[in-house]
UniProtKB/TrEMBL annotation:
It comes from Hornefia butyriciproducens. Coiled coil: none annotated. Residues 87-137 form the FHA domain. It is a multi-pass membrane protein. The chain crosses the membrane at residues 39-60, 185-204, 210-232, 244-262, 268-286, 298-316, 336-353, 360-393, 399-420, 451-469, 489-507, 519-540, 552-573. This is FHA domain-containing protein. Its main location: membrane. Pfam families: FHA, FTSW_RODA_SPOVE. Keywords: Cell shape, Membrane, Transmembrane, Transmembrane helix. GO terms for cellular component: cell division site; plasma membrane.
Length: 600
């Protein structure tokens, strides 16, 4: 037994010593390291182009066809296909189902479907009311509709009919033929090669600063992505473009962390693992719409407690007190609250035209703005403000618009008064567009002038991971991460990272047009807006085209809470993906591949 243990220990020691041996070779022979870096920079470009363009092409090529769930026959002259799970019926042009009849109110009622296929009608307090099979429907009360039931809206008579078995089969066949999904294996192999080459490059670039954490972290993310894809392939899923993009950006994040904070790499890797776990959990949870909406109250409470805890126990960093120290960990609660904000907003306004829900959400939003103002977190406050507007106006009636206007006016005034008085915010606005002026270049403009200089020195292919000097500047791994990537990895890879985020957003926008539920539409739109806004603020702020706001680049910036939140936001986009077998957030049963129970 001792002999066997000795052999195993020797084998383990051999493999453990390989990274150091490679590092020693490149350290002792500097010319070898220089030659490797010279060639590797171009290989990195080719690998990044292949990985990202394969995923981008697949996402943009998919058309996400809408699906007919039932038909609503209106009188003797109209047969309307129902392509969404929530439909507003009325005379107004904005209604999903428009009935040109003066006896029908502008927003008469809603027709909704749940996961099990049950359709329900709810009257919105219409003037002439509604009845089902002659029985009066009380305002704001849901009534189940079955095949052939007679729904009367004022003077208009409607009948709900299911799609035929043949139509259902045709829909499934059409979706299978129309869905274009790139095979994950070539991209995973390319990304694995990218990760291995990155480790070698970091050994060369960092020299003595290189440590075992870096090797373990890159090995870990490589194993993680392979396990994830293999596991989901076993669940008959085949669309992994979003996850491939996220894993690529997370790999770059580990490289940036290794360059700027070598001793924090493993911690960043752990947050990637936590993000993937959260992503998987959210996708699974989002399958069940009633269960998802039922979690709204929990999200309310969690968000309020997190923000209050931050306000009272937060520490100040870079002018904003949005950080909380928990032992050796530093977290940013407002990043997690973004997920809760979307969850609550989508769930509240998903129940169409219910004024109470809109009022509660507006109060909640104003509370969030107030807390962020107290923290002097200007960048996050801007994001919350825009998301509030997006969520509020996606589904709004006249009364809702009044509440929104009041809420926006109050919140906007609060933000202006608070942030205008914050000296650090004022200084950032003062240096905006004037970083190179003599009065700013050595003080408040120091970060941006150095960032732009470093980015310019990287050229198209970069200096090589670990070979840059911007990593010594404060907040280089967070606020200025775009310039760090440009310096060390080159402008091409930096722009590809931006293009990847834009592609995720474009795909999400196209997916929501065929979305099953208003909840998924609102949530995906909100997550899409956050990705775009954070990327824009980070990139344009680092090159002085916008004020520096301290907003993280999704997936790319170093920061555990930001990484976890990015994966959580991706789950909302994944839930809107209606391609056949592409999304774990859509059960096979919901797409007609299993035995589906439909009450109509």
């Amino acid at each position: 037994m001792e002999i066997i243990l000795g052999i195993l220990k020797g084998i383990g020691g051999f493999f453990a010593g390989i990274p150091q041996a490679i590092a020693d070779v490149f350290t002792l022979t500097s010319n070898v390291g220089q030659i490797y870096t010279a060639f590797a920079r171009w290989i990195f470009i080719l690998l990044a182009l292949f990985i990202l363009l394969t995923s981008i092409r697949s996402l943009l090529k998919s058309r996400n066809p809408s699906e007919v769930w039932a038909y609503l026959n209106i009188g003797d002259y109209m047969n309307v296909p129902l392509r969404h799970w929530e439909n507003v019926i009325g005379r107004a042009r904005s209604c999903d189902i428009q009935i040109d009849d003066m006896s029908v109110s502008r927003n008469h009622g809603t027709l909704t479907r749940d996961n099990s296929g049950v359709w329900k009608y709810m009257d919105l307090g219409s003037k002439n009311g509604a009845s089902v099979n002659g029985r009066r429907v009380r305002p704001n009360a849901e009534v189940q509709l079955k095949a052939g039931d007679r729904l009367q809206l004022g003077g208009a008579v409607c009948t709900l009919f299911p799609i035929s078995i043949e139509e259902r089969r045709n829909n499934i066949q059409f979706r299978q033929e129309d869905t274009v999904v790139a095979s994950p294996w070539p991209s995973l192999v390319a990304l694995t090669v990218f990760q291995i080459m990155t480790v070698i490059q970091l050994m060369i670039g960092l020299g003595e600063k290189y440590n075992a954490q870096i090797t373990i972290s890159f090995l870990g993310i490589c194993v993680l992505m392979w396990i994830y894809v293999l596991f989901l392939r076993g669940m008959k899923r085949r669309g992994f473009e979003m996850e491939t993009i996220a894993f690529f950006l997370s790999t770059l994040s580990l490289a940036v962390t290794a360059t700027c904070l070598p001793n924090q790499v493993f911690k960043q890797f752990i947050t990637v693992v936590m993000g993937v776990v959260l992503f998987f959990f959210m996708c699974t949870w989002l399958r069940d719409l009633p269960r998802t909406i039922a979690l709204k109250k929990v999200m309310y409470v969690a968000a309020v407690l997190l923000l209050l805890f931050n306000v009272f126990f937060g520490t100040t960093k870079n002018g904003a007190s949005n950080w909380v120290q928990l032992g050796g960990l530093t977290i940013q609660p407002s990043e997690i609250v973004k997920l809760a904000f979307i969850w609550v907003g989508a769930a509240s306004l998903d129940e169409l035209f219910r004024r109470r829900n809109t009022l509660y959400f507006t109060i909640f939003a104003v509370f969030c703005f107030g807390c962020l103002a107290a923290m002097s977190d200007f960048g996050t406050a801007m994001i919350f403000f825009v998301i509030f507007l997006i969520i509020s106006f996606l589904r709004s009636g006249d009364f809702t618009k009044l509440i929104v206007i009041l809420g926006v006016t109050f919140a906007g005034g609060l933000m202006i008064l608070k942030f205008a008085s914050a000296s650090y915010v004022a200084s950032r606005f003062a240096v905006w567009g004037h970083a190179w002026d003599p009065e700013f270049i050595s003080n408040t403009g120091f970060q941006m002038t150095r960032a732009m200089t470093a980015a310019a020195s990287g050229g198209f292919v970069g200096l090589g991971a670990g070979e840059g000097w911007l990593n010594g500047i404060i907040a280089s791994e967070t606020d200025l991460v775009f310039c760090v990537v440009t310096e060390e990895w080159g402008l091409l890879i930096a722009l590809l990272a931006v293009a990847a985020i834009v592609t995720l957003s474009v795909f999400a926008y196209r997916s929501i047009l065929a979305g099953r539920s208003t909840y998924y539409t609102i949530a995906a739109c909100s997550a899409m807006a956050i990705f775009l806004m954070q990327t824009s603020l980070n990139v344009l702020g680092s090159v002085n085209l916008l004020p520096l706001t301290g907003v993280a680049f999704p997936f790319l910036s170093t920061g555990g809470t930001s990484m976890i939140a990015s994966w959580g936001l991706l789950a909302f986009l994944k839930a809107a993906d209606t391609r056949q077998n592409a999304s774990i957030a859509v059960s096979l049963k919901d797409k007609g591949l299993g035995e589906e129970v439909d009450e109509i």
